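subagent[fold] <- orchestrator: predict structure for attached chain, return tokens only, no commentary.
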Amino acid sequence: MEPWDAPVRLLPLPLPPVHGEVFGWYLHRLAAANNVTAGQLAKTLTPFKNAQVSKRTDTLWRWTPMVLPRLSTLTGLTPETLRMLLPAIARVEARTTGEVVRYRRDLYIACSHCMHRRGITRPVLAHRPADLQLCRRHGIWVDGNRHYRVGHLPELGTAEHRHRRIARRFPDTLEAATTEAQHLVRSWLLNKKQPHLLSRWNDRLAQLPPKEAIYGNIIRRRVDEREYIATYPEFVTLLGILADPAWRVLRNPDRRTSLSQHRRAIDSVYTEAEHRLNVPTLREKLRSHAFSNDPLFRWTNSLGRSLMLVTTPDDYDALRDESHQN
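subagent[fold] -> orchestrator:
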């Protein structure tokens, strides 16, 4: 009788998975706690002989849905609980039902303080929802390979709360808008042409601890990790605009839209961004080519009409900077 045909029974130490945990990571933790190998457990769960499971195994391409009831028996957890906690299970089942399950590619190391409360002393690799950046209970930034202590920066917790609301409101545009907003704030940070924002970001950078626990052998290194933390509140603010379909439609005007109308649309986006970011202006050198290189201008001007918008004098006041009008 093959291992996957033999009856299974409850393990002596049936550890539950952490929410979103990578399947291979969980199987290795479960195996270590019960003094067996992950390969031995895998052979009891899936019908193929060479079941090799690394800690990062998560696609389970050759696995069948029988893994769920057998794992349920091994751990004493209901199938519903396992399906909720282990993303890999839902993907295995989706291959047989034809259901589309979005694969969450972002990984993170769960907060070590939270894990210690559960009796877990080693790092746990899990899938990170798009709106999870920090452990609010312990003030630990978890999006990266260094867990910075940021509890003394309350604006980060407030921003993550807004981030979650945005993720719930705009799930269809969230992924694209996230990439766009990250690029936008990163560009402003590097080109140093937004002094009001740069002052905030430098203040936050100065308050971050220089070193924290590093998990470089588990999570790839983010060279911009400290900068991303510093710009996170403004990133979330811009995300609220960029993910909103009502604002996104302004970046895709009909080709018959006149330059005057398009300028007014750009002005509306800048005015809204300035209001939400609470800065006097985001517009510099309006009559030069430099303005056409501003990342927010490029986002709104998706049709590539930069030169005409900047150099054509007709109705130019639509891009005026109200803060300089007296």
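orchestrator: received. Logging for downstream: The CA atoms of residues 154 and 212 lie 19 Å apart. The first strand starts at residue 107 and ends at 109.
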